[in-house]
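Let's sit down with a protein and look at its sequence and fold side by side. We need material for that, and I hope you will provide a protein of your own picking. Once you have written the record down, we can walk along the chain together.

***
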Amino acid sequence: MRILHTSDWHLGRSFHRVPLLDAQAVFLDHLVETVARHEVDAVVVAGDVYDRAVPPLTAVRLFDDALHRLAAAGVPTVMISGNHDSARRLGVGAGLIARAGIHLRTDPADCATPVVLPDAHGDVAFYGLPYLEPALVRDTLGADRAGHEAVLTAAMDRVRADLATRPDGTRSVVLAHAFVAGGEPSDSERDITVGGVAAVPAGVFDGVDYVALGHLHGCQTVTDRVRYSGSPLAYSFSEHTHRKTMWLVDLGPAGELAAERLDCPVPRPLARLRGRLGSLLEDPALERHREAWVEATLTDPVRPDEPMARLAERFPHVLALVLDPERAPEDPRASYAQRLDGRDDHQIAEDFVAHVRGRSGASEQERTVLRAAFDDVRVNDTVNEVSR
């Protein structure tokens, strides 16, 4: 069976206030054309179809059009909700839509109810594990604790139990939206940390033939059978080195696997430039970035006059300006952003406790309280967004 694996469309998202809906439409055109050109048997979309729980109508129309075209092509599509989606909204009408070959898996309770698609060699069972917010799904899945590894393990135990009841030779594909250890994140994914831990081991998914992952925006191979397709478009400048692709996966009669990366259309390249303003304006080597979306980091000791306007004369598509003055590390004027670079909210809170106590840090009990407070805020935000 030939499977096209994609994820993280984030329909409705902008890039530094530049609307991306036209670029997303071009990608979906490319997706439908790829399905026909490569004679794809099934499409899997591993979450974050939309960028937010209540997407704009223009994004909904684009999604609706894509579903109609895939259904008209007669190619079954299996998709799950991600942490950016409202699972309830995305799953509305799932039973009716399934009659057209579009299978939405948004309810954690249904994770062990596969979409079974036949080919010349037998059945392939597609199991959809939507994004599993630990505090919200722990009881549903019977997990022993509220953590990402615990709820994914409970879900996969159900998958393996169902698979054991299937006829011999049934092959299996799992769609999941999660941060799996070994994956490389970027700046554009929403934090899903719980209790200080976001990543789960790849071994959680043992026992199935292919795992189609979503959430991380870089296309990457965790193991030969566990892969991220990544997002089809760049959503932050941290993705400037990404090659945006989809996975074309051939699943053989005995579970043999071959995977090929297929490039996605690039609306405009990204460039991260760094240096003093004069150098960025005059260096001939930078001319190749003239048509790119540009993030410029200026290292001038003193902020230049009208830097964005001057940069825009050479780089018409400059979108972001970062000021990082050249200063000695011991300089008391070193920026606050520099001191916080690479530190999460919980670490920053612990630093504050140490600061106000004259360098006496938080106790283990206090760190636990801080961690629980941040987890509660994140879960409450998730619940509020889903219920809107």
About this structure: The chain has a mean pLDDT of 91. The chain has two domains: 2-263, 278-383.
